[in-house]
Fold:
Amino acid sequence: MSALSIFTPASARSGPSSAASAPVVHPAALCESDTVGPRTRVWAFAHILPGAVVGADCNICDHAYVEGGAVLGDRVTVKNRVLIFDGVTVEDDVFLGPAVVFTNDLRPRAHVRKTAEELSTTVVGRGATLGAGVVVVCGTRIGHDAFVAAGAVVTRDVPPHAVVVGNPGRRIGWACRCGRRLPDSGTCDCGRRWQLTESGPTAFAADTRRPA
Structure:
């Protein structure tokens, strides 16, 4: 299954944008994809290859690299020096901190050429945060609203809302949608209330904000 068949940003499904809402590309950036959503900003020295899909209202910062076959949703923040390769899907509202690195080949050899179908896919779920310097080993899925701390190495699937630290990454708690680590009571300082279980937090029905 290709990354594009897993997830396509809503802005890419709605057709081309008008000139007034076209993406803004810095003169020193190289944007070779014709599928970049409205109001997305591509800053100096960033490189988006042909075949990449980038949604609306994204922020692609200096020296970021988005390879053909990668898919970014709407409102994704890609900080400086992030590397996103073919087979990586980043859903809506994800934050990728500086120098986050994805991989797409578990057993790379310089002399072995592989097709896109032979590469491993990776998915980062809606609303997740990956801190500075995170490395994501391919073939994993990071659940929605997860929070992976700076410098962590993701080697296996991360549950939704999990707080992950270290190398290899391990869960040490659960994160609220606002990004704070949840206390044992399940009541976040932001006011959201969660029921905590071994499988993760569940929002109380009385909370009318966007569901988990």
